[in-house]
Every structure is written in structure tokens, then in C-alpha cells.
Amino acid sequence: MRTVNPEVMTRNLLQFCYTCEDAHMCDCEEKCIECWAEKGMLTAEDNGVEETRALLQEYYA
Q1: How confident is the model at residue 4, as a pLDDT?
Q2: Tens digit of pLDDT for each residue in 2-58?
Q3: What is the DSSP string of 44-60?
Q4: Are 55 and 48 in contact (CB under 8 A)?
């Protein structure tokens, strides 16, 4: 499993857990990360980062 730094962890908690009906079941960081991985949220973030990077390079190049 990949390591998630505290800044990303906080952003993900705010973005993914705030509206989640099962948020009360995640009482530690490991459970949150498992939940995000099961729902495919961690890999989706990686894809968006590369797409954004490519668009910004085209814009500023």
C-alpha cells in the first residue's frame, strides 16, 4: 500500500469522508485509506494529477 502524507490525508478526509454515510465506521487513518482504495479514490487522484500537469505544461509552454 502506498504512503499518504498528512496534507493529502486531510484533504481526502474533507473531500471524501464529509459526505460519506459510513464515515463513522472509519476511526483510524488505515481504515480510511482502505475505504478509499476499495472505492478507487486513490487511483483516480493519480490520474487527475497527470492530466492537470500535462494541461498546465501545454498552457505555459
Answers
A1: 65
A2: 566 777 777 777 777 887 888 888 888 888 888 888 887 776 555 677 788 888 889
A3: HHHHHHHHHHHHHHHHH
A4: no
Cell 490525508 belongs to which residue? 9
* Residue 17, C-beta contacts closer than 8 angstroms, at least 6 positions apart: 23, 26, 32
Region of residue 26 (phi > 0: left; psi between -120 and 50: alpha; otherwise: beta): beta
Phi/psi zone of residue 40: left (φ > 0), alpha (ψ -120 to 50 degrees), beta? Answer: left
CA 8 to chain centre: 7
Q: What is the pTM of this model?
A: 0.50
